[in-house]
UniProtKB/TrEMBL annotation:
It holds the Pfam family tRNA_synthFbeta. Its main location: cytoplasm. It comes from Bodo saltans (Flagellated protozoan). GO terms for biological process: phenylalanyl-tRNA aminoacylation. Its EC number is 6.1.1.20. Keywords: Aminoacyl-tRNA synthetase, ATP-binding, Cytoplasm, Ligase, Magnesium, Metal-binding, Nucleotide-binding, Protein biosynthesis. This is phenylalanine--tRNA ligase. Belongs to the phenylalanyl-tRNA synthetase beta subunit family. Type 2 subfamily. The lineage of its organism: Eukaryota, Discoba, Euglenozoa, Kinetoplastea, Metakinetoplastina. GO terms for cellular component: phenylalanine-tRNA ligase complex.
């Protein structure tokens, strides 16, 4: 097998189509043969639910191709298989379930058909194979983990599954080969070689035939990027090593180049359905990731060995420090879990540790009762997802059955409810969307220039400054929603007009009178923590039309919003009645905000209890502000503080 499994798959008819994590697409009949039992679609869907996965889709190669290629000609699909394929969604951390072999093995253990198998490393004390790691690989891809699968037997389905599983591990666990990359080689093609060398080689001296190619690649003449410029799959991995003067390589003791990690393997050692002995090597900058990746492959496919669930050891010798490590490490990790904790967290009543151990054994674990309240759990190498006691608690819940957990009332001290400001905000959003505006969600931080200089405004010591800003874009907490919406308009200016945007979010202002709720209780009273700032919920909208600046439109939107909030409009000349307790009202008057064009700006004034307070503004954005944000069209804007209406 190659690091490029896509090319290798061209040799065989594909039954398990390539997938991205965490979905397993597998031929139904192949999966049922591995399980040793057939199911109806409904029965298998129920089994998946009980096991904590989901049967997402039932399809076929032909149906999937038809979906993707709308109107495909009949001749293009007649060669595709109509064999039923199950698409099964799996948890993102359960890499062992991403192959048909791993899924079927886990299901058989869950059903009680077989106990969880125990994996053995043979020749661990005196490995017959050795990998020497040259000190030149340090700080390139420092580590390598190896293993050998002996006397393995493939079928067309299991061979394709082997190839597909490695690609899934590359995409997910290895993060597109950045954390690890695995190569597999046919040992019988290596002329009895038992010693290998992992080193770096000057790229000018690298020359070999890559997997599934007939032309020799000379890195000095062709270059990796040039050789694979038409290969969409391989080309995306070239940047991982293209900047290096010496490429990582793996050679056998006869000097044959087997692998150019993490890019491609040599065609010389490629595996096929007829392969019987497989040498596995995984290079990585992270030893743990490489170990987990190799363990997943070994656990899934060692069942096809003549001696099932065995793997042969390889000694890895590091020249840099003289250390030798025997890989793979298939040791069983041990943890304990106590039954009272399980019962409390899951919400069940397991009577003893024996029953708890029985449930854990269904989840491919080795569990037994230490005493009446404690369970000792052995964790096999394929269960790399078990990191904490809570992972064991989750497995108990799955094995017990979510449907069998009795729902109880949440032990909270109060009933949850929407805060008044959030309720008002959500209702206002719905109304503004109905008026034809599109909601934006902008950053809570902005630069000082965007908030003040670009808008012609002065700070006046109102902005909350970030003490150690990492970029010039995020220096202060926004004192207004205007910069964010103008930047959104800037990013959207290629869209056809009209463009109508709005936002309902918080701004932050300095305010030394604002306090947190009580923080510390002392003998002589309550100590308050001063925050020195306050949040205000604002509503802002921007309107740009092809015909004009849209001043009348934004004015109309303000009147519409205030009507929906329930605030009546009055004339600015309406006399103020001292001590009046009449309902709130608002009016507009000429504004002086330098962010707006002179004579085309208005203040929004709230009259409450005989007192006038400016709560917002509207107008045509000043040309200087438009230029600062690189906006080619005139637009109008409004912003209102809705906090007083809560």
């Amino acid at each position: 097998m190659s690091l490029s499994s896509t090319n290798q798959k061209k040799e065989e008819p594909e039954k398990n189509l390539p997938n991205t994590m965490p979905t397993l697409a597998v031929a139904r009949d192949f999966l049922f043969r591995l399980i040793g039992k057939t199911y109806t679609e409904k029965q298998f869907e129920d089994l998946c639910f009980e096991f904590g996965v989901e049967l997402d889709d039932v399809t076929s190669e032909k149906e999937m191709y038809t979906r993707e290629q709308v109107g495909a000609a009949g001749g293009a699909t007649k060669e595709l298989s109509e064999e039923v394929i199950y698409k099964i969604d799996t948890p993102a951390n359960r890499y062992d379930l991403l192959s048909a072999e791993g899924m079927s093995l886990a299901l058989k253990v869950f059903l009680g058909t077989i106990p969880a198998p125990k994996y053995r490393v043979i020749n661990q004390s005196s490995p017959a194979f050795k990998m020497i790691v040259d000190k030149s690989v340090k700080n390139v891809r420092d580590f390598v983990v190896c293993a050998v699968l002996k006397n393995i037997t493939f079928t067309p389905e299991s061979y394709n599954s082997f190839i597909d599983f490695q690609e899934k591990l590359h995409s997910g666990l290895a993060r597109k080969r950045t954390l690890a990359s695995v190569g597999t080689h046919d040992l019988d093609k290596l002329n009895g070689a038992t010693e290998f060398r992992y080193s770096t080689t000057p790229k000018e001296s690298i020359s070999f035939i890559p997997l599934n190619q007939t032309k020799t690649m000379n890195c000095a003449e062709d270059g990796l990027a040039q050789y694979y410029k038409e290969d969409r799959h391989i080309s995306k991995f070239i940047p991982l090593i293209s900047s290096l003067s010496r490429y990582p390589t793996i050679h056998d003791s006869h000097g044959n180049l087997l692998s150019l990690p993490p890019i491609i393997n040599s065609d010389f050692s490629k595996i096929s359905q007829a392969t019987r002995n497989i040498f596995i090597e995984c290079t990585a900058p992270d030893h743990h990731k490489a170990s987990v990746l190799v363990n997943q492959i070994v656990c899934a496919f060692s069942s096809y060995c003549a001696d099932p669930f065995t793997v042969e050891a390889v000694e890895v010798q590091y020249e840099a420090d003289g250390k030798s490590i025997v890989t793979p490490d298939m040791a069983i990790r041990e943890m304990t879990v106590d039954v009272p904790t399980v019962n409390r967290r899951v919400g069940i009543e397991l009577p003893s540790s024996k029953e708890c151990a029985g449930l854990l054994n269904k989840m491919f674990l080795y569990a037994d009762a230490l005493d009446d309240k404690t369970v000792r759990v052995g964790i096999p190498p394929c269960r790399s997802d078990i990191l904490h006691q809570c992972d064991l608690v989750e497995d108990v819940a799955i094995a017990h059955g979510y449907d069998n957990i009795v729902m109880t009332e949440t032990p909270t001290r109060s009933n949850g409810y929407q805060t008044p400001v959030n309720k008002l905000s959500q209702l206002l959003r719905l109304e503004i969307v109905g008026a034809g505006y599109v909601e934006a969600l902008t950053f809570s931080l902005c630069s000082r220039d965007e908030a003040f200089k670009s808008l012609g405004r002065t700070d006046n010591n109102v902005a909350v400054h970030v003490a150690n800003p990492q970029t010039f874009e995020f220096q202060i907490c926004r004192p207004s929603l205007m910069p964010g919406l103008l930047k959104t308009f800037q990013a959207s200016k290629s869209n056809p007009l009209p463009l109508r945007l709005f936002e309902v979010s918080d701004i932050v202002m300095l305010d030394n009178d604002v306090n947190f709720p009580p923080a510390i209780i002392v003998d002589d009273g309550v100590v308050y923590n001063k925050t020195g700032a306050r949040n205000e919920r604002h509503f802002a909208a921007l309107n740009c039309t092809a015909e004009s600046s849209g001043f009348e439109d934004i004015h109309g939107l303000v009147e519409y919003a205030m009507m929906k909030i329930g605030i009546a409009q009055i004339s600015a000349s309406t006399p103020i009645v001292a001590g009046s307790e009449e309902e709130d009202a608002y009016y507009v008057r000429e504004g002086r905000d330098p962010a707006y064009f002179p004579g085309r700006a208005m203040d929004i004034v709230l009259r409450r209890n005989g007192k006038d307070t400016v709560i917002g503004s509207l107008g045509v954005v000043h040309p200087t502000a438009l230029k600062a944000f690189d906006l080619p069209f005139p637009c109008s804007f409004c912003e209102i503080n809705i906090q007083p209406f809560v």
